[in-house]
Amino acid sequence: MKRLGIKHLEDRAVARMSSGEAKRTLIAWALAREPRALLFDEPGNALDLAVQFQLRDTLPELARSGLAILLITHHVSAPCFGDHLGNRAGGAVAPGRILADGAKDKVLTEGNLSELFGVRVRLERNDGYFQAL
Asked: Which of 11, 51, 101, 131 is least buried, going by the fewest C-beta atoms within 10 A?
């Protein structure tokens, strides 16, 4: 809990926490078991913008500590802290096929995202994070 900056929540019931506090508490609970990897499925859902930014900063810290992170999301602005968006179940997955697999700069392109989502996508990169417009 200290590692995630939520030590002050140690005596609070999860049912009495905000979505962001509960999500960080669940991450702390998982970390207490000293895993080698964590799987996140849409970790930013139901979080306000400030908590999304906190999570965006926390996940790369965990990865830098040696913890393997598998992040499943359809949000382009999710943390992209690795150099590779890979597949066995990753990259950019279109219905029934893998659309792209490789370095994030090669996978997260306007063309790939436009094809994947079926809409014209403009992509901006800011400070290592991607934003679809």
From this structure: 11
Distance of alpha carbon 48 from alpha carbon 32, whole angstroms: 25
Query: In what helix (H) or strand (E) does residue 28 lie, and over which residues does it extend?
Result: helix 19-31
Stated pTM of the model:
0.72
Are both 64 and 99 inside the same structural domain?
no
pLDDT of 81 strictly over 80? no
φ/ψ of 68, rounded to 5, equals -75, 135
Same structural domain, 68 and 91: no
Domain count, the chain: 2
pLDDT at 88: 38
pLDDT at 127: 76
Q: How confident is the model at residue 30 (pLDDT cuts 50, 70, 90)?
A: very high
Question: Same structural domain for residues 61 and 12?
Answer: yes
DSSP line for 52-113:
HHHHHHHHHHHHHTT-EEEEE-S-TTS---SSEE--SS-SEEETTEEEE-EEHHHHS-HHHH
Residue type, 36: R
Give me the domain span that covers residue 103: 83-133
